[in-house]
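Known limitations

Structure tokens in this collection are predictions and should be treated as such. Users comparing against experimental data should check residue numbering before alignment. To illustrate the layout, the record for Probable electron transfer flavoprotein subunit beta is reproduced below. The input appears on top and the generated tokens appear beneath it.
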Amino acid sequence: MTKSLTAATPEIMSSKLKILVPVKRVIDFAIKPRINKAQTGVETKGVKFSMNPFCDIALEESLRIKEANKGLVEKIHAVSIGPTKAQDILRTALAKGVDTTTLVDVGEEEVEPLQVAKILKKVVEKEDSNIVILGKQAIDDDANQTGQMLAGLLNWPQATNASKVEFSGDDVIITREVDGGADTLKAKLPVVITTDLRLNEPRYASLPNIMKAKKKPLEKLKPADLGIELAKKLETLKVEEPPVREPGVVVASVDELVSKLKEFKAI
Ligand code: AMP
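Generated tokens:
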């Protein structure tokens, strides 16, 4: 029999959970990105940034695990690798209820998933984490690679695209949505999990908690402090908008539809 994480009791797990949640600062999901003039990426000036939505889901899941199981979670640590401004999303994470945070400040440098995974491995070791819950993908690079690479570097089991996380004794049971059904996996701690859209609905941080979070300590490191030298292995040659869609044609009858399809050589 399995128990939902939110229904688990501390006795069923022999180890306390030390959760690491990596969160990325990305252009807000509600904003339509524009390609910059040099066609090297998207325009970031004057654009609103927020926490990547899949990271928000990962954060929510870790908070629910902690709240539903008194004593089971020793700590939740959030980490972001990005510019100094990524502090904002760590403050949001603190306002929502994580215990501690680290900003790995890389300035304006774009960091590839392999580099992110290498930095995260160091943070896992530093924080002695035994479960890492990441988003399945960052909506800016759409890479969907970091969790998998981290699991490889750590040599930990990984369960990607989780839509449900449960406990059974010392096992973690993860359900993944796959085409036409569900795939259920079992793993022991330590484990890497990446979150799918339907795992939960993230909460909003309350105003008083946002104010309180401003005063909470936030650890700031550089990659070199973790023994990492940033090195790019990929070069972006060009970023292009999709081709503009031709306007549609309104037809009055089936006959006209058929003749139009013939005209466009669609049939
Ligand atoms: P990606 O592989 O880039 O699509 O990202 C997948 C997940 O890895 C994200 O949802 C985050 O949980 C984590 N991640 C990626 N980049 C960063 C970053 N710069 N800082 C913190 N976490 C990150």
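For this record: The chain has a mean pLDDT of 92. The pocket of adenosine monophosphate is lined by residues 22-24, 52, 54-55, 58, 80-82, 111, 113, 116, 134-135, 137-138, 141, 143-147 (CB under 6 Å). Please report discrepancies through the issue tracker.
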